[in-house]
Amino acid sequence: MDVDPSAPDPSLLDDEESADAATPALDITPRRAASTSGSGSKSLRSYVAVGAVVVLIAALGLVLFKGLNNAALFYYNVDEAVAQRQDLGDQRFRMQGNVVDGTIEKSDGAVSFVIAYGDQRLNVVNSGAPPELFDAKIPVILEGQFVGDEFHSDQILIRHDSTYDEKNADRVKKAQADADARSGASG
């Protein structure tokens, strides 16, 4: 008997024990993978976009936090702050007064001086370099807290801003009169 391998005997294929007897022929042609040329870059772009939004929201939150924190810092005149020292404790606040002539001592990274307003004087230690216009008899606003008998500040603002003057006209007049009285007494 001659057997032709290209044409198998159908009686041999329909054997009941054969696994493929009742099923159609199995398609074993290779298939191509689905195209992924754009899906990876789309995913990366979406992660970058989400990351950018998160960074933007965090930056906005930081700006709002800093702005509200600065707005929450009430300021006192020196005499008010000294009178309320116990209540203020070690919390941060702003304080206004005039730098007393002859009290400025500069050292590496700090400056100490005496600030006065009304009948009160207070020793101040400021960390960091003072602003360029800082000098004796200049009205300043300090930001910091009480440490013992001194006021430790980390920011000195020279009080010369016109918007400050407009908003606090009565305080400006009182501070200017105080500065004039002190400069007349020392000069």
TrEMBL record:
Residues of the signal peptide: none
Transmembrane portions of the chain: 46-65
One GO location term (cellular component): plasma membrane
| Entry keyword Membrane | yes
Which species does the entry assign this protein to? Answer: freshwater metagenome
Bias (Low complexity) ranges: 1-11
Q: Name one Pfam family in it.
A: CcmE
Q: Name the InterPro entries on file.
A: CcmE (IPR004329), CcmE-like_sf (IPR036127), NA-bd_OB-fold (IPR012340)
- Bias (Basic and acidic residues) ranges: 167-181
> Is Transmembrane included in the keywords of this UniProt record?
yes
Query: What is the protein's name according to its record?
Result: Unannotated protein
What is one process in the GO biological process aspect for this record? protein-heme linkage
User: Subcellular location, in the record's words?
Assistant: Membrane
What are the GO MF terms of this UniProt record?
heme binding
Annotated region (Disordered), positions in chain = 1-26, 167-187
What are the alphabetically sorted keywords of the record? Membrane, Transmembrane, Transmembrane helix
